[in-house]
Amino acid sequence: MENLLQKIVQTGAGIAIVDITGVPTVDTLVAQHLLKTVAAARLMGADCIISGIGPQIAQTIVHLGVDLGSVITRASLADAFVVALQRTGATINKGH
Amino acid sequence: MPIVKSERWPVRSGEDIVRVRQIVRRWAVELGFGLVDQTKIVTAASEIARNTVDYGGGGEVLVESLSENARRGLRLVFEDKGPGIQNIDEALKDGFTTSRGLGLGLGGARRLASEFSVESRPGEGTRVSLTRWK
Amino acid sequence: MERIPILKMGEFLLVTIQVDMHDRLALTLQDDLTEMIVKNRAHGVLIDISALEVVDSFIGRMLGNIASVSRVLDAATVVVGMQPAVAITLVELGLSLPGVRTALNVEKGMELLRVSLAAPNGHADRQK
Lengths: 96, 134, 128
Description:
The complex is a heterotrimer.
Chain A: H1 2-11, E1 15-19, H2 28-44, E2 47-51, H3 55-64, E3 72-74, H4 77-87
Parallel strand pairs in A: 1-2, 2-3
Chain B: E1 3-11, H1 14-30, H2 35-54, E2 59-68, E3 71-80, H3 88-92, H4 106-112, E4 115-120, E5 126-133
Antiparallel strand pairs in B: 1-2, 2-3, 3-5, 4-5
Helix pairs in contact in B: 1-2, 2-4
Chain C: E1 6-9, E2 12-16, H1 23-40, E3 44-48, H2 57-72, E4 76-80, H3 84-93, E5 101-103, H4 106-118
Parallel strand pairs in C: 2-3, 3-4, 4-5
Antiparallel strand pairs in C: 1-2
């Protein structure tokens, strides 16, 4: 957690995308850890998008009753990236 | 549990609260705590110290460095002879309100510590012990 | 008596907290800021806490109070530079600083203040 937050400070990143694509399962502890990380980043003035949530994990999160609150989540890293771009007011145009 | 070093400090004023933070920071650094752990124990100390001053009528803190098997720890025992806590279970529930801060912050401080205990009886003062292990 | 200096930057006020504040100093800061907002008709307050290694519930409440009082006086408040260890601790403590906008650094904080000034009701993304 510290590493991500330190990186946010160092790079001045307004948005951090936390990709958990490689993570096979999530238990309550991991879910809570993720939520705490997002909360800490927000307190500092940055935001987090959690991406790479597979169907197993999505179901686990609901089953565990974890309240994601206002945390933005996306299934794919690409989708998360789009959200991040939208929030920073940037757009990607297809070249001609 | 072998106590390597211990010191007693007064906790009676706002200035004492600041000093307690500095002392706890120094001890945590000496014990080799990482920055996050340092911050957690110093913040917890600040919360309890403030309770001791604001609600306990002032008291003192015993700062101890512990050594148990391979691990080192820092223990803080805050004591006052104040009015005591009516309902400890209530006090341990998260009580931070946005306005006057009526919550005693005990619940929060407990989450920041590895070990935590509260002893209090109405009219007999309060004793809060928190330990953070490295 | 010692006071924390408040700098005027255009229509904003900038406060940099660099000492471990005792309660009286924190309350004095609140009073001084409130007075200066009125006196200078400031519309934004930037509080730089990048040097603060500890933010406990008292300081957290102070920041919340400053944000609330400023709002009443039609000034937006942004707190910048919170250290990661402090943020992690605040989350564990359960303190969420409601009503306090935050930004990573002074530059982004100023930008946030400018944006909130441009929008008539000062509604900005980051409100917690």
